[in-house]
Amino acid sequence: MRDHPLARRLLRGTTALVLAFLMAPMLAVVVLSFSPTELMVLPPRGVSLRWYEDFLTAGRWVLATRNSFVVAIATTLLATVLGTAAAIGLQLGRFRGKALLVTLLTLPLVTPYIVTAASMYFAYSLAGLAGSLAGLVLGHTVVAVPFVLMAVLATLQTFDANLLRAAASLGAPPWAAILRVVVPNIWPGIAAGAVFAFATSLDEFVITLFLAGPGQFTLPRQMYASVREFLTPTILAAATLLFLCSLIFLLASEALRLRSTRKTQP
Amino acid sequence: MRRTNWLAALLIAPLLLLILGSFLVPVGLTLFRAVADREVAVALPDTRAVLAGWDGQGLPPEVAFAAVARELAAVLEARRIGDVAQRMNFERTGLRTLLLRTARAGDRLRAPYAESLVALDARWGQRDAWLMLQRAGGPFTSLYLLRAMDFTRGPDGAVSQVAIEERLFQTLFLRTLWVSLLVTAICVLLAYPVAYTIARLRAPWSSVALTLVLIPFWSSVLVRTTAWFVLLQREGPVNGALVGLGLLDAPAQILGTRLAVVLALVHVLLPFAILPMHSVMTRLDATYLRAAASLGANGVQRFLRVWLPLSLPGVAAGGAMVFLLAVGMYTAPALVGGDRDQMVTWFIANFMTRDVNWGMAAALSAYLLAMSGAVIALTRILTGGTVQAGARA
Amino acid sequence: MTDVLVRFRAVSKSYDGRAKVVEELNLDVHRGEFLTLLGPSGSGKTTTLMMLAGFEDPTSGRIELEGTRIDTVPPHRRGIGVVFQNYALFPHMTVAENLAFPLSIRRMKREEIATRTQRALEMVRLPGFGDRRPQQLSGGQQQRVALARALIFEPKLVLLDEPLGALDKQLREELQAEIRRIHAQLGVTMVYVTHDQAEALTLSDRIAVFNSGRIQQLGTAEAVYEHPANPFVAGFIGENNRLSARVLDATRLRLEDGSTLEAAPHGLPPGMAVLLSIRPERVMLGPAAQGLANAARARVEEVVYLGDHSRLRLMHAGRTDFVVKLPRQEAVPQPGSVIDLAIPIASVMVFPA
């Protein structure tokens, strides 16, 4: 069923404009990050890597990058293990209130981050966790883990429960069945969840703002501070590098998605 | 199967504990803090006990004066007077000075305290200060929840609106609601034709277009907001282009205006509207349209009576997601918005860090949660399903 | 003196605490036999199998394997092989890895695993398929691998849950022969679940016919076909004409249209309402029927040609749907014609209504 030619032209025109609107700011940042001067003007008056050099040599940016990756890696590990285990548990268990439990576990997704952050700050202050690396990782894990949970649960929907029964009938105790049959079959979902968890932690700003100690700057926190303080193209170099990370995450998640759909449609 | 359920419980427990301990209990504590009233009970326990037996008529007995003088001096000594002073001052401006002055007078005050306190500050001779001190005894208060809606409670307990020049929060909530609704409306209106077009494009163009939506979806909110911050500067590329095209005579101040906030929010949230709509539309069977055509429906009728109703769940999901994220968004408005035109989130952050008034931060959080909850409930009722989240704000 | 391998004692199963899927089941499985649980869907046969495998817990009662109670033993410690309808081959493993799985779980030596895998593949006639993925095999081949996998760790008992349900007719018959051969060769006890009565008759030493959570009849294929215990069994296994009637005396019955029918002595009191079941292939047709017991004339309503036989729909005994099967060599009458028929006395099965 084709649309009227005029309608089609109009729709495609609108779509092109909206997509351009979505992409333009990011492309502008990438271009401006190569600016030879502190002036951020378009079109650029040359190409230089001085802001990248600045980024890679300035102590605070290097430290922020390191912090970001330490927190993101720890968060990803914790969120992936906890989220995968819980998803498998939810799939295995036969009890009432599963839907409620899933809602509860994914509540951090629909709760305003500022409320989550403020609440964690209150509670972590009481527990002496505020300002610690452990507190920051826990905080990031809370908002990252629902993605893992949902990704793994979605993959488990296509997992044949008879495979578990088969494993049991062949003598495999439950933990062996999970490690040798479930996990190898749902790994694309686990990996997709892990990628999302990593991206979430790397981009997370609001919770970091409240939970991080005075010296604990992550990349987003450093960017925010720098923007408010004094805007230099170094920020744009940082933004471009983060943008590059997002592209890698996107590619990874699409590759995993293709893999898991191919698996379910032999 | 009991054994399987044990295993399942064992697998779920760690995550449940994490979410309970790090999220549900903290959020619960926040909600509790919005109504909790502990400062007076902690700092002035004896005063509170005496006032609890006071009938509120005339002035309290001499023991109350004695207790307040002794306990205020003691908490000042222990450097813990800040909390109770701030708490009482929030009840009525000026009470901080009253408490501090009395505490500092300390040893110089002599019995009968009823006379020496009134001599120090005439407000001790008025019933109001005592009534407010009595009411602040806890354990619960409606002070913060009322104040977060621009209401206050007089010494006599009557609820009234605060003075016009102090009103702030009603406007704040209306502003937050309005900006969020505006952003949601713009996002839905822009997203629908885009989702429709992408769903009907042929491969590989559909993948290319979808990737152009996914790229911003995956990139950091802060990166995108920073981009707008750079683009919208007075000397930035947008102003440069507008002046260059002759549309403006001189660069305009865009940063710090509501336009900047709406622009950045739409940009950040648009993918969240497009993706759910697109996913619903790609699952729509084209044979419905063929069937409608075979039954005599023309293009407009096919769209209005078949495609639109079938794609509405995607619209509801996308719209709800955008609204939820807009209401709770801190980064974008904080960065590109003006200090006088901020949203609820900004005030929560300010009460947390600058004013250290956790009661107000908690009360505003409670209202914000209620708003989000209402939207989720409404969407559930309208679509009969859950809101599929995918937020990284 | 038969050797009992599995014993169900008063086993009941309910999912919601009220409706019972399996009710007070008592069943002995003999060592080395091929027992089929046959019944319509929802009759409790699969639940019975799942309880034996350990995937479901009985609500009450006990299950014993070689005299030891097993209903509290987790499935992975029961040592019972299971073949599933959808094969349940692990998609992330090759055929050989699938076969090696139960052996490696049992920490068997590598060389031993290799030999056994090889042997198992030969047994199901798939040598050289070890390196393939299950997805690369046809349905029939996958089910052979699943069968080999359930047998490779030498269980005493193998359960098969409608293993041929997803295959087409020709493949199904081929695999039935295969299963029979393997059963005879290994002497392993097999419990087989199916809703296909022809399959049950082909394969089984004994058949347990299930309906609404209870065993209706347990016996050899011949016994359940020739001497059904009740109308359900008569109706579920093989085709039959059902007629309502009333007992006249020790051998005679009055049909609804007023005619009488003679049967073998049934021992039911006169006046009792009964249900008659008459197999279509037992009815005699044509001139040969004249003068026999229960001889009558009936009009042919419809003739359906089915290759090896023809089905006639007759107007008889007050019904218009009285079905008779006519072997191929007999002359096929025209619709509308009137023919002779006779119902042998021994073929009138009488059940209390």
From TrEMBL, chain A:
Keywords assigned by UniProt, alphabetized: Cell inner membrane, Cell membrane, Membrane, Transmembrane, Transmembrane helix, Transport
Limits of the ABC transmembrane type-1 domain: 65-253
Pfam families: BPD_transp_1
Regions crossing the membrane: 12-34, 69-92, 99-124, 130-156, 177-199, 230-252
Record carries keyword rRNA-binding: no
InterPro entries per UniProt: MetI-like (IPR000515), MetI-like_sf (IPR035906)
Protein name: ABC transporter permease
From TrEMBL, chain B:
Subcellular location: Cell membrane
Residue ranges constituting the ABC transmembrane type-1 domain according to the UniProt record: 173-379
SUPFAM superfamilies (alphabetical): MetI-like
InterPro entries, alphabetized: MetI-like (IPR000515), MetI-like_sf (IPR035906)
Bilayer topology term: Multi-pass membrane protein
Statement: the UniProt record of this protein carries the keyword Transmembrane: yes
Segments crossing the lipid bilayer: 177-196, 208-232, 252-275, 312-336, 356-378
Location, primary (coarse class): membrane
Entry keyword set: Cell membrane, Membrane, Transmembrane, Transmembrane helix, Transport
Pfam family, one: BPD_transp_1
Origin superkingdom: Bacteria
Keyword NAD: no
Entry similarity comment: Belongs to the binding-protein-dependent transport system permease family. CysTW subfamily.
Protein name: ABC transporter permease
Species this protein is from: Falsiroseomonas frigidaquae
Automatic annotation (TrEMBL), chain C:
Domain called ABC transporter: residue spans: 6-237
Superkingdom: Bacteria
InterPro entries: AAA+_ATPase, ABC_SmlMolc_Importer, ABC_transporter-like_ATP-bd, ABC_transporter-like_CS, Mo/tungstate-bd_C_term_dom, P-loop_NTPase, Transp-assoc_OB_typ2
PROSITE patterns per the UniProt record, alphabetical: ABC_TRANSPORTER_1 (PS00211), ABC_TRANSPORTER_2 (PS50893)
UniProt keyword terms in alphabetical order: ATP-binding, Nucleotide-binding, Transport
Coiled coil regions, renumbered to chain: none
Entry keyword annotation includes Transport: yes
SUPFAM superfamilies given in the database record: MOP-like, P-loop containing nucleoside triphosphate hydrolases
Listed GO MF terms: ATP binding
Protein name: ABC transporter ATP-binding protein
